[in-house]
Amino acid sequence: MIMTNSSPLARHARRSIGTLAGWVGALALAAGALHLTSTSAAESAVKIPAASADDTSSAAGVQTAVFAGGCFWGVQGVFQRVNGVVQAVSGYAGGKKETAMYEMVGTGLTGHAESVKITYDPKKVSYGTLLQIYFSVAHDPTQLNRQDPDSGPQYRSAIFYADAAQKQTAERYIAQLDAAKAYPKKIVTQVVPLTEFYAAEGYHQDYLTLHPESGYIARFDLPKVANLKSLFPQQFRAEPALVTARAQTAAKPQ
Questions:
Q1: Which residue out of 71, 78, 105, 137 is catalytically annotated?
Q2: What is the pTM of this model?
């Protein structure tokens, strides 16, 4: 989501307008862009080793993870297409409830980061694998307080851990990747405790799937999905776990 001097809501409206680039992205999607890896997409992803240790491996039952990595549209879109993920919700973490709204978070003064809460089945996908996808495909962990064209602390790279096991796993993995020089620069991802997660406004949910005509989505986010399929074929699912689909199912009379 590109930052300008105008209001965040106005920026959202402009990004939602169909541009020539956006319609090209829509046509590409219709032709199966989600099942292809373009040259630019391949260049933007980094193939990295799996985490050597996962302290969450004994976790039982459905678990959650909260990651921040730039605009939540693309991060959500990636994790909705990971096998074992039950739900991925765009939202805000790091600030207070009173400021957990798009217009305020967009000022960069609330402490919030655009984040995604991932609910997953550890029997199907591990926390360590989610971290590998997060660092490899979902964003660039070496960019400080920005991601792609978006700048500000609300777009920072951050892992909001739920317990000591998640904290240790994330910190050890970052140290492993830095030691292996997996990236040309040092990882700047914050590893901080999760105090609370606040779901974003409804119009932000499932944005990548619902707005493939968006020029922003076509340029910055669809390549991430293509990279997911290319680098993690065993984890990739073609049918995303959409927030709107779950809401509609829950609303149906039994």
A1: 71
A2: 0.85
